[in-house]
Each structure stands twice: as C-alpha cells, then as structure tokens.
Specification:
Length: 207
C-alpha cells in the first residue's frame, strides 16, 4: 500500500493515508484515456442543430412553369434544394451525440489518470475544505500557501464557504467525488482531494 501525506491549509502534515498499489502502479494508457475524453465531450454536446428540408421551408408548391415547350429543364416547386431559399439536402437534425463506453474501460482510464497524478506529485490530499469565511481573498491567500495553480478540488461533503469563495476564481473548480470526470482532471494541473473523497474514490475504483 502506498502512503500519501494529508496536509492542512498551512501545508503542514497532519495525517497519513494508505492508497492501494493497484491504482498507483497502473501505467498511463493514452488510447483508453483518449476514448474516455471523447466520450465525455460528446455527451456534453446539445445536439440541437437543425436545418429545414424541402418539405419544411416556407414557399409556394406550385409548378414554376409548364413541363414542356419552354426549353428549360423541368422543375417542380420553388422549395427544391437546387433553388435559392430551397430546402437543405441531408442537413443536420437533432440527435444524441453521446458515445457509449464500457464501464470497465471508463474505470481503467480514471485509474490510469489518478495514478499518473500521484506519480507526478500533482495529487494533494487535504484534511478537509472547511473555511472560516466565504471571502475569495482569504481563499487566494490559502491557495498561495499551497502553491496551487489550475486546481481541481474534490470533496465528499459539501463545503458552502469553500464553494462560495472559489466560484469567482476561474482557475479553481470544485466537484463532488461522485461527479469526478477524467476530462476535468486532465484540464487541471493539480488534483486536490479531501481525505474522505480519496477514500470514496478508492472504494469505487477497486469495486
């Protein structure tokens, strides 16, 4: 079992937790991580794009000129795709862009990313996220002591003061351990987890 230091907001070690070697020693899997990221981003797409087809555009359906004798090619209505303001052929329609990913693959990708953060020394374990005030300037001072930039904080229990203080900082994000996604981890330099959140994550990854 690997041992990780638990620190407080003053960067002082207050405890130590054990983390399973299976997670720490899992090698980085770029191809699996790529599939997980693509799946995550695809699920965020709204899929509300829409163009009007020939039967949906506004316009008269009368025949523009007689079929024979004019020397022109035959034509039907003004809504034909070949004409200006006509319908769109094979245009986008509302649909679900999400890509299904095997649960084991998604779990392996998350283990791979978390393990790499630990090996790089970019995973920090905090005792908790309890703040005395909800002021952003006080949180900035704390983050300065921890030397954090582009940090993703993961909690197991809601911390109202931390949530209020951090929402004005574009480089700090707070998520619940159950909503932790691979894309969010990769999008931040540091992964900061509370002691309880780390225990919760380990239990889910090894289940």
């Amino acid at each position: 079992m690997a041992k990780l230091q638990v620190i407080d907001f003053n960067k002082k070690a207050v405890d130590e937790v054990e983390f399973h070697d299976q997670i720490v020693e899992t090698p980085l899997s770029p191809f699996i991580i790529k599939d997980a990221v693509v799946s995550s981003l695809a699920a965020k797409r709204q899929g509300t794009h829409k163009t009007k087809g020939r039967s949906e555009v506004a316009g008269s359906t009368r025949k523009l000129f007689r079929q024979k004798g004019t020397g022109n090619s035959r034509v039907g209505s003004n809504n034909a795709p070949s004409r200006r303001h006509g319908g769109i052929v094979f245009g986008p329609v509302p649909r679900d862009h999400s890509i299904s990913l095997n649960k084991k693959v998604r779990k392996k990708a998350l283990i791979s990313v978390v393990g790499e953060k630990i090996r790089q020394g970019k995973l920090i374990v905090l005792e908790d996220l309890k703040l005395k005030t909800h002021k952003t300037k006080d949180l900035v001072i704390i983050l300065g002591k921890l030397e954090l930039k582009q940090a993703l904080f993961v909690c197991a229990e809601q911390s109202e003061n931390f949530e209020l203080a951090s929402r004005n900082l574009s480089w700090v994000n707070l998520v619940h351990s159950e909503g932790l996604r691979i894309y969010d981890i990769l999008n931040h330099e540091h992964l900061v987890m509370t002691k309880d959140a780390l225990s919760d994550l380990e239990g889910r990854l090894l289940k």
